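Input chain follows. Return structure tokens only.
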Amino acid sequence: MADLSVAPLALAPRSALADILVLGRHGRSDGPPGIIVSERGALCLASLITRKGQADTLAALMKSAYGLDLPTAGRSTGGLMPDGRSIRFLSAGPGQFLAIAEGAADFATELMTTLGRRAMIADQGDGRCVLRVGGPKARNVLAKGFTIDLHPRVFKPGDTALTQAAHIGVQLWQLDAAPTYEIAFFRSLAASFWSWLTASAAEFGYEVVPDKS
């Protein structure tokens, strides 16, 4: 009798940009690239919503667990943990935060254990894409579609904003004064956002590089 058993199915994570993002130089080819782009594929993301009346306790727990303050409106906090992980918390509305970790295998579960009684936590790692955009023309490119003021006197390192880019909802945060930004958006809109970003960057030339973080 024929063996009708089904072989185990192995699933592997796959980026929403896997068939779109092409490493190398694109757009204008003379001179150095205006922006450098990489996908932050190894990040773990989770959303936190503070439970009613628990803001102070949540802040104390986070300070104890990670040595970080809860970010105020429009700001982010982050740092390198003793175990080598990089963790960042972004303000995402009143009492709401986006938590991001590098080198954390199951960050959402960790947050549920550490903070869960004081906040509602949901894993966002499979639902969003994150890009890093930097270089001398990064601000010029983003200003073509982002509906906020990116002037360095207004939007500075450590700032974050929930906004739109080419009618796509995004969360933007600035890492340094170079400037270098990171941008999170829903993976279902990854192709649309990538199309806008690359079209906007073409006049300056852009280079897509592997994530080295």
